[in-house]
Design brief:
327 residues; five-stranded parallel sheet; 11 helices
Length: 327
C-alpha cells in the first residue's frame, strides 16, 4: 500500500504541531503515512517543525504544492487563508483541512468563499471539538428527539494569545479576538448537535474586560438568542465564552423532549479527549478516499455564526458596557 502523503501549510499556532504528533501516533499503530513537506514564513518555526517531524522545508506554498501531497493540513493566519486555499486547490489535487480560525471578519470570509468556490468539496475546516468522542456521542443521543434549548460554555485561557508571536489572535480585525478564537469552539459544539443551525434573531448579552487586562478584545462574554433550524423550528441558545485563567473547559447542556443531556470536557482530565487523536484518525481515513473532514458545506454555518455573533455582541454592547462601567 502506498503511504498517504501529508504536507503542512502554515504554522500560525500550536494546532499543526498537535496534528503531526497525533498522526505520528497513528503511524506507530500501523497507518501508512509520510510527511512530505512544511512551509511557513517564520524560518525558525518552520525549521523546528521540519526537524521535529522529519519532513522537508519548502520555500513557499507554491513550492510545497510540488511535493505532491494527498492531504494538506493548513494553519495560516485568517488574512492568508484565501491565498493559501487558492494555491493549494490550483496547484495540487489534495484535500485540504484548515485548522481554525479561517476568517475573523466579513472581508476574510468573502475572500475565503471566493477562493474555495472552485472546489468546496476538497476543503474542510473545524474546531477539534467536532471530533471529541463525548460530543459525537451526545449528537447521536439527541438525533431523534426534539431539542428545546441549548447552553454552552467555552473556556480557554487567553494568556497564550497575548504572547508577542501570537498577539495577532487577540486582535478582532486580524485573528478574531476571544469571541472568535475561543467562541468558535462553542459554535462548533452547537453545529455538531444542530447541523445547519443559523442565528435567527438579534444577539443580546454582555462583554467583560477588567481595566488591568492586556487583551485587545474580551476576557469574557455572554450571549443569547435563538437559532433557526432547517425545518423552520427555533431553538433558544445561551453561550458563555471565557478567556480567564485556568484549564480549558467545554460544556454543553441540551434540554430535549426526552430530558436534559449534558457533556463537560476539561483539559485537566486526561481521560477526557478533546478530539485531537480522533481528528487525526478521521483526516487520514477520509484522505485515503480522496475526501476531507468537515467539508465547507458543513462548516459554513458554524464559521458564519461565530463571526456574526461576535460582531453583533461587540456592536450592540458598547453603550451598555459604558453604562454598566465595564471596560
Amino acid at each position: 500500500m502506498t503511504a498517504l502523503r501529508v504536507a503542512f501549510a502554515g504554522l500560525a499556532h500550536s494546532h499543526p504541531f498537535s496534528d503531526a504528533s497525533s498522526i505520528e501516533v497513528c503511524r506507530a499503530q500501523g497507518a501508512e503515512v509520510e510527511f512530505v513537506g512544511v512551509y511557513d514564513a517564520d524560518e525558525e518555526k518552520r525549521a523546528d517543525f521540519a526537524e521535529r517531524f522529519a519532513c522537508v522545508e519548502t520555500r513557499s506554498f507554491e513550492d510545497l504544492a510540488t511535493r505532491n501531497p494527498d492531504l494538506v493540513i493548513a494553519t495560516p493566519r485568517p488574512s492568508e487563508t484565501a491565498r493559501v486555499a487558492t494555491v493549494l486547490l490550483r496547484e495540487t489535487s489534495a484535500v485540504v483541512f484548515f485548522n481554525k480560525v479561517i476568517a475573523a471578519t466579513d472581508a476574510h470570509l468573502a475572500e475565503w468563499q471566493e477562493a474555495v468556490s472552485s472546489a468546496p468539496e476538497r476543503v474542510g475546516t473545524s474546531s477539534v471539538l467536532r471530533f471529541a468522542p463525548a460530543i459525537a456521542a451526545l449528537a447521536e443521543r439527541i438525533s431523534d428527539v426534539e431539542v428545546w434549548s441549548i447552553r454552552v460554555l467555552a473556556q480557554h485561557d487567553i494568556d497564550m494569545f497575548l504572547a508577542p508571536d501570537r498577539r495577532w489572535q487577540d486582535d478582532p480585525t486580524v485573528g478574531g479576538g476571544t469571541l472568535v478564537t475561543v467562541g468558535l469552539h462553542a459554535w462548533e459544539m452547537i453545529g455538531r448537535l444542530l447541523p445547519d443551525a443559523v442565528l435567527d434573531s438579534g444577539v443580546t448579552g454582555w462583554i467583560q474586560r477588567s481595566p488591568q487586562a492586556r487583551t485587545q478584545s474580551e476576557q469574557t462574554a455572554q450571549m443569547s438568542g435563538t437559532l433557526r433550524l432547517l425545518d423552520g423550528r427555533r431553538v433558544p441558545y445561551s453561550v458563555l465564552v471565557a478567556g480567564v485563567p485556568g484549564p480549558e473547559v467545554y460544556a454543553i447542556d441540551v434540554l430535549t423532549s426526552n430530558g436534559m443531556r449534558s457533556v463537560r470536557l476539561s483539559s485537566s482530565s486526561p481521560e477526557e479527549s478533546l478530539g485531537f487523536k480522533e481528528l487525526a484518525v478521521a483526516l487520514l481515513r477520509k484522505a485515503e478516499q480522496g475526501l476531507v473532514v468537515a467539508p465547507w458545506s458543513t462548516a459554513r454555518p458554524i464559521v458564519t455564526n461565530t463571526i456574526r455573533a461576535a460582531q453583533a455582541l461587540r456592536g450592540s454592547t458598547r453603550t451598555e458596557m459604558s453604562q454598566r462601567n465595564v471596560y
